[in-house]
Amino acid sequence: GAGVSQSPSNKVTEKGKDVELRCDPISGHTALYWYRQRLGQGLEFLIYFQGNSAPDKSGLPSDRFSAERTGESVSTLTIQRTQQEDSAVYLCASSLVGTAPNGYTFGSGTRLTVV
Amino acid sequence: AQKVTQAQTEISVVEKEDVTLDCVYETRDTTYYLFWYKQPPSGELVFLIRRNSFDEQNEISGRYSWNFQKSTSSFNFTITASQVVDSAVYFCALGGGNSGGSNYKLTFGKGTLLTVNP
Questions:
Q1: If pLDDT is split at 50, 70 and 90, which confidence band does B117 have?
Q2: Where are the beta strands (DSSP E) in chain A?
């Protein structure tokens, strides 16, 4: 596609429920990133995928968070047993190769609200 | 550890005023990159500029200009003759360092909310 597409754009869920967020990267981009943006905060790194290499999951805040990516296509970020502190905008980005200097292209994000 | 500080949480100006957004960073890398992103109300982060740590030449792009000073670890962003459409959150970011193996990560500041009033 022309840009990074994320769905849903907004999600309201009850505390304790599981949610799944989707990211469609730009076609041909081998690197994919998930970041979290809490209200009034900068972006926090969550996870990085590069081709078929093992992902860097060092930013995932707890074992309730997981992410998958099939090859160089769609990625899903799953949050189990959601808590109110999980409320944030979840941003996905992709790039041609996995180095920051090449610059990321970000999606518009999924705004998650846990009530 | 890397750190990016944007001390200005919110700035409000009147249209046509010039405004400077401050960014100070910390890194142990000797080579690194600095970025500015714009986040309009739609939420998508828009890339504005990337600067290599070896290149301290100031850059101007239309009404935007950037002042990189390695001696003070600052990468400030100035908008000249601001317009209402400039209203957004602006993020400074640091990444691509030459130490460690995770040069793909970007470290972001907390952002500055710029409101340009007509």
A1: very high
A2: 5-7, 10-13, 19-24, 31-37, 43-50, 65-69, 75-79, 88-95, 105-106, 110-114
